[in-house]
């Protein structure tokens, strides 16, 4: 036996410590490990992880590096994990270190200390009822912060000129005139206006008026794009309104994909309603064409829709009076704050309940994913679309989705946006029993399908199916003490705890303070 191997066995059967654990909203519980370095130093170390009744798969370490510390993320509340470390030198590998175990707890669910209707696990300011988000992490809440992204351009100026007040875009030059956005602000010029740019021609809509009724998810079509100075067609802005002057918008979407045809998503439009729509083109120098002429259409009557009784639920998806998916002892059918449907995929009952008093759920629909262009996410029971009405002046809502069966420990919430596809939604927290998830939604924010702050939130969401630990996922950042993303499907997790645990009389476990990452502002 070589000296290396003897040293490995001697060192690695003596000490492996959990140094700290903490949680983040996006990635789950974080566990930091530390162990004694070997002497002489080996080529590196490997971490292996298993769950109850499983064996270690020594072919697939979850972390590999030369450091003697490692942070693993993606641990799920209520699941017990077992961990060992091994040293290696070329093809040689030591035996296991002392095995340690850890079961993440989940202590912050449902708590709202300051009463602002945002749960503490999603609240950056849990003791301040006037703040809950801090986009630039400067310690000043978005409601009080005049510059949410710290790019030296005030939020009001950015919004007025079509910039994003939550992204540091000071060095960008949207109109390609050689002057950065920040310099345009300092000079009081328009960052979206290049005086040397010939603007695109206004789109033409062939049929300005339509005599026939259209269904609730029509496709709007414009003419082709033309630009005198041959700038590329960068975006198109589509608007739908119930008023001919577009004073009341039900959709305002700017797309880089749907340039001459827009597919209107589910739950945007109402039955038997006349709508007006228009479109304008945007070139690569952010030059805007004039709006097209207004076109109009009227949607089908209720008797031709899938919700003939107009109760907000497709007739084929309605549940009977025996269903109590939120398990509060009352039939969902007779409660005002929840609407429940049978899913078209996955044989599941889904209920959407408004938790905040300022919001009312008015329609819910289960939508199949089979026809989606983006098939990168496999959901457990398709998409659940729902529409929320907000009281005057309100901009956020707290909603809880209930499931008739537990979802996977590694499931995540994904939003589906018609022209962007799937995106993971971080403002979400699963209940410990995995039978519900609480969402914080912002009118006009990420995931609001209508794209406009109009007192209505249209939300298409899915719960993903993902791999579990032991699947062979390995990731290493190559740096000292780097983090390890131990699963391709990380559950939403947050914890706030304080306790000491001894492992073989030598180990100390210090519970870390929760880091919360929330991306949207209450205005």
Could you walk me through the main structural features you see in this protein, from its secondary elements to its overall organization?
- This protein has helices spanning 3-12, 155-160, 181-186; strands at 16-24, 28-35, 44-51, 63-65, 69-75, 81-89, 92-93, 100-102, 219-221, 233-241, 249-255, 261-263, 274-283, 295-298, 338-342, 349-354, 359-367, 383-390, 396-403, 413-417, 421-424, 428-430, 436-442, 456-463, 483-485, 510-511.
- It is mostly beta strands and 523 residues long.
- The strands form six sheets. A five-stranded mixed β-sheet has the order 25-5-2-1-26, with no helix packed on it. Strands 3, 4, 6, 7 and 8 form a five-stranded antiparallel β-sheet that branches. Strands 15-16-19-23-22 form a five-stranded antiparallel β-sheet, with no helix packed on it.
- A hairpin with a 6-residue loop joins strand 15 and strand 16 (349-354).
- The longest helix has 10 residues, at 3-12.
- It is globular and about 75 Å long.
Mean pLDDT: 77
Radius of gyration: 27 Å
User: Which series of helices and strands comes N to C?
Assistant: HEEEEEEEEHHEEEEEEEEEEEEEEEEEE
From the N-terminal CA to the C-terminal CA, the straight-line distance is 68 Å
Across the major sheet, the strand order is 25-5-2-1-26
The outline comes out as: globular
Helix content: under 10%
**Count of separate DSSP helical elements:** 3
- Beta-strand content: 25-35%
Short description:
By secondary structure, this protein is mainly β. The chain contains 3 helices and 26 strands.
